[in-house]
Specification:
462 residues; mainly alpha; Growth Hormone, Chain: A; 2 domains; globular; 2 strands; 1% strand
Length: 462
Amino acid sequence: MAVTEERDALGTITNPRPGRWVDHYDPEDAQQWRSTGRPAARRNLWLSIFAEFLGFSVWQLWTIVTPRLGDAGFNLTTNQVFWLIAVPNLVGATLRFPYTFAVPRFGGRNWTIISALLLVVPCAGLAIVVQNPQTPFWVMVLVAATAGVGGGNFASSMANISFFFPEREKGAALGLNAAGGNLGVAVVQLVVPVAVVVGGGLALDRAGLMVIPLAVLSAVLAWRFMDNLSSAKSDFGGYAAAVRNKHTWVISFLYIGTFGSFIGYAGVFPTLIQQQFPQVTFDWGFVGLPQVPLTLAFLGALVGSLARPYGGRLSDRVSGGGISIASYLVMAVGAVGVIASLSLGSFAAFFACFLLLFVASGVGNGSIYRMIPAIFRAGVDQEDRAAMTLAKRQAAACIGIAAGIGAYGGFIIPRVFATSITEFGSLAPALVVFIGFYVLCAAITWAVYVRGRSSRFAGTAI
């Protein structure tokens, strides 16, 4: 009877306050979790995945539209092309920091509605500017920058879902949420090249228009079925403690090497294929559907997204540090392979080596995230509940900070490639820089987290 009364009380999952505000929610309460908590958490998770999926799709729209601008009559330099690819990543990475605090301020449901509707702005802007080849370049950069709102969605979505699940299930839930978002990159790079040519001709405006109804649908579904949790509070103390901890910045640097590589390579891959192998096209083989170049580029983001969960699983069996080092070294090998494939003029080798880069970066994403809780628990007395709580708070804050800083790789990689091409006429100098960076990341991981140079990590599996 008591359970029934609790279920029917105002401010519960079954009877939320106006605005779908839930005041009585504790995922660690086993009885509540079994009755109403788990169904509510799963409902919010799937709707969050859909919203984040669309966010990543919008964030990366320009990566697949930009290579076709020349066919639409735009006359852009190589440097300008890479600016259009890089700017959304710069804005998206920066927005991840304020977006982290949006959920406690506005509510998870409410912010999902707002962030979904914000996606309409870059989509409508893209649909307008790509129809006029005389559009000033600064206007195109401004419109491309608005796509960064999709990149910010990751931080708010992850923060929101973390409040719904108990500690024992939080990792799996956040993994699904992250993977769902990453898949948005692959899907947009698969669907857009086909959508813009169906029916004949080239209609780049469809790239933006096709997402608008989905963004509105996401907002409507969030309004109807998601919940706001009163218990979702900003942990400024945890963030302050994490900012003062040097390992937050070490991990953030290392995450540039994994997630930064994933999002950076995903952004430039379609353009690199077009520029380095313009003769390569892919025919879907359907009657009435013309050849659609660059479609194969989606496979990079796809395999990188699918590899991410395996990075966490392998780290559980071996160690996060060991798997991260292996990922960096494999990425270095992949970059060497890309250089060799360019000298050979082999598209097959070029494509295969880039897929290796994507897989290794995806595995590294999972392994770096797996390392974070272990790093902050190291040296903490397991019986000291206050110390363990602080460690968890710092780890959660570190994940948010690293997610933002790591995303800046999506800006750095296109700009390094642009400099390499304009100054040296080749991708090789950029790839040499990346190889050196991956070796440095592997060395730092080994020195700090595997070798155990500090007594802080003695006897701890990182």
